[in-house]
Amino acid sequence: MSPRGHTTSDWERRFRAPVSFLPEWSPDAPDRIVYAGVGKSREEIAYALKSDILMFNVESSQELQLISDVASNMGVEARVALRINPDVDPRTHPYISTGLKKSKFGIDISQAVEAYELALDLPRVRMVGIHQHIGSQITEVGPFVDALGKIAALIPELRALGVDIRYLDVGGGLGITYKDEEPPILRVFAEALIGVVKDLDCTIVLEPGRVIAGNAGILVTRVLYTKQTPTKHFLVVDAGMNDLIRPSLYGSYHAIIPVHRVEGIPNLTADVVGPICESGDFLAKDRELPAVQPGDLLAVMSAGAYGFTMASNYNGRPRLPEVLGKGDRYLVIRRRESYEDLIRGEEIPEEL
Fold first, then answer.
1. Active site residue ranges
2. Domain spanning 10-213 has what CATH number?
3. From start to end of 239-338, where are the E strands?
4. pTM, to two decimals
């Protein structure tokens, strides 16, 4: 959305959220929930079973046995898919690659049949699907097709064993434009996947995240100080790595632009840094930006995914509010934390 009075630039069109809708969902629709993750606890499994979610995406044989145990104790049935690791390189950052043989995620595809055979023998476990997810911020169709092709080839073999594969969870991971990436548009992505799965007679489950939310959100920060040393310019802002950790964690690029555009200001090359007492606390390094002044607002773009969800209270900093823009209205959808929130869960034992 461009500021009032401005036309929408090519740059803004590139960074606009690629979809304008969210799927209909409500908290009382657990049959649309799949539960993934390598470290599910007994308590979490019990809660998911009580909620009657669609299925668990199971990542190890021990987890499978624990789900069977918990479901048996509760007298319920657990619907399960196994997350299979197809050993496909997603060609993304190593920290967000999840489908390689060395990854902690999933069950190696060479052990998949053995894992399904184990599942068939476990009480209170009903095998209903198969799952794969190879990484995040993937900007090519090829890795998705390669991984899904391996999974698709496995399905007839599993059905021959008596596994009723109803759901094929193809995961997520489609990337967005942060700088100059050119990820495939959704239609191209969908057509490529349909070409692999169209004859499998499965309900397809898709887990889009970043591609929906990433370019739908920005982080707004205020310039506190400008600082020049013999070798560097710094823009010290009031947002830090606790608010948006991706640049510090991954070296990730987020475009940064002034909220209020002023023509004719010179540019300078500066590090945009936060108030956290870490040298790794930065939002950008050696970035060419307009020579903004203290009090000016900057928009850190593409912060709608892996922004607030990865935020913390490090350095005793309350987390930010989240504000939804709807037409010409602004709605607070998560309130700003207070200093009281920081200590709300703390208590001093009486004997001290």
1. 277
2. 3.20.20.10
3. 256-258, 267-273, 282-290, 297-300, 322-326, 329-334
4. 0.84
